[in-house]
Each structure stands twice: as structure tokens, then as C-alpha cells.
Amino acid sequence: MNRWIRALLPLLLVVLLAACGGGSAVTPTPLALTQNYVSGDGTISFQYPPDWVATAVSGQVTIANSQAAFESPSPAPGQFLTRMIVGPIASVSGLSADSKPLDVVTFFVESLSSSAITFSAPVETPIGTRRAGRVDGTGADGQGVILALDMGDGNYSIISVTCSPGELSRFEGTLEAILQTLVYVPPKGS
Q1: Are strands 60-64 and 80-88 parallel, antiparallel or unpaired?
Q2: From the DSSP assignment, how many helices (H) and strands (E) are in the chain?
Q3: pLDDT at 44
Q4: Is the separation of the CB atoms in 79 and 72 below 8 Å?
Q5: Exposed, middle or buried by CB within 10 Å (0-12, 13-18, 19+), for 115?
Q6: pLDDT tens, 25-59?
Q7: Which candidate among 11, 19, 121, 165 keeps its CA 20 to 30 Å from the CA of 75?
Q8: Contact 188, 50 (CB under 8 A)
Q9: Distances (CA, A) of 104 to 16, 89, 144, 161
Q10: C-alpha distances in Å from residue 117, one per residue of 5, 51, 74, 153
Q11: CATH architecture observed for domain 3-184
Q12: Strand partners for 139
């Protein structure tokens, strides 16, 4: 099993099951993106809101709307957390550089194969000018989202999102704005 699957499957399952209750739906304007994140190796960069946390741990980038959300095993109402990895999708056994966003998101959802999570049908959705596959998931304790964002040239960002049920719309505009600034530069020699 390659690093993508080893890294993401436990994470996605935990994230989707860990979202906790509460909250109400609000659709505010996306927050201003005034902070810059650049990975240690320079391959990943994006902008994110002030007072948010962005850090890399074990090859995954985590973005949270507060240090408390970053440290919490499951986001409380008002907390938002997303994790992503970015790289060539052909490094995942069963997928190729020609894989479409729906193929990629479906692959990761099928790899979860948990009866504890109910997934929506995969849909293709634009994020800025890029194509993405999206699946929403719900479990006994909450909800989550999995996105497969086509970064071009056979590269994808696999993104898992969690927040309290009913609060996704509160953060979705800001998440989309962050993802529109996401840049991936493959390492030299790859």
C-alpha cells in the first residue's frame, strides 16, 4: 500500500466519524486570505485567513480555524479542520495520471469501506478554474467532506474536511478561496 492510502485512509475515516454535533447553517462571505503557507520543501503553497493555523505533519497539511480546532480530536461547534496531501495520483495503485476527479474521489471513498459512514453520490464540482470530485459523508456523530482537486499534469490534492453538523456552509466559501490559491510544484527530478 502506498503512502497516499496509508496516510489518508485512517485520517479520512477518523475525520468523518469525529465531527461532533451542534451548530447552525450560516453562509458568510469568505474570510480574507492574508497569511501565506509554503511547505518546507517548497512544493505546496497557499494563502489562508489570519488567526488560522496551517502546518505540515507526516506529509499532510492541516488547516484549522484555531489552535483549539487543530488540537481537538473532534471539532466542537465553531471549529473547522481540513487536511490535505498533494502529489502525483499515478503513485496510487489503481489510479493513473489520466484519472478524472470522480474516479479519484470514488477510489478513496471505496477504500474506506466503512458501514459506519454513509456517503453521498460523488459529484464533480468546480473549485475556481479547477475540476474536483466531491463526496459528503455522515456518521452517527457528524459529517465530513472528501475532495479530489485536479491540480493538473496528473497531480491531485486529496482533501478531507470536518466541522460540526450544519456548519459546513459557514466555512465552505473560505475553504474554496484557500483551495483557489493552492499551488503545487512537483519536486525537481520527479
Answers
A1: antiparallel
A2: 4, 11
A3: 96
A4: yes
A5: exposed
A6: 444 678 899 999 999 999 999 999 999 999 998 88
A7: 121
A8: no
A9: 18, 8, 17, 16
A10: 18, 32, 16, 32
A11: 3-Layer(aba) Sandwich (3.40)
A12: 117, 142
136 DSSP β-pair partners? 145
140: its cell numbers = 452517527
Say what the pLDDT of residue 9 is: 44
Distance separating alpha carbons of residues 86 and 66, to the nearest angstrom: 23
- Give the integer Cα–Cα distance in Å for 137 and 22: 17
Of 5, 14, 111, 106, the residue nearest 59 (C-alpha): 5
| pTM recorded for the entire structure | 0.84
Per-residue pLDDT at 185? 94
Residue 17 identity (one-letter amino acid): L
In which residue ranges of the chain is pLDDT below 70? 1-28, 113-115, 139-142, 189-190
Determine the residue type at 96. S
